[in-house]
Specification:
mainly alpha, 2 domains, membrane
Amino acid sequence: MPSSHILHLSSHTHLRKRFTLVSTIAFGFIIINSWVAFASGLAVSLSCGAGPTLIYGLLVRGIVMSILAAGYAELASAFPSAGGQYHIVCMTFPASTRHFTAFFTGWMSILYTIGATASCSFFVAQSILNLVALWNETYVIQSWHVYLFHICLCTIAFLATSRFPAAIGSIGVSVF
């Protein structure tokens, strides 16, 4: 099917808008994982340069992430489709390599999503259990505790998004 036909088909279908401006900003903030990157880099910033490194590092990271987000937004507005990255790759690469590169990009996007979801929920599980250990001096964190808490967080997230899809925007704002 030619890409012009796909664009023609996708221009007539519309989804119901469930996100407000604030929930869209919150969703983008969560997707970019800037809070995880900031928290994981906090110890290095504090130990290597203290306050100035923390402040200027935050500004530089914010500028870089804004440039990346603007680039992705430009591509998404130029090639609006549900396919996202792999559809953009299929449209922009030469005909000899476009199918392989689009296939590879699609699988890399899937693997990234799985890895990002796992690492974020694992980070949150470790953080919560570290707070528990901080408050309760007799509690010793074991690896299976972290894994079990990680599975619980993934299950809660799955149930919340699969059973209540209209509440995703509100959940994103509350997490933001």
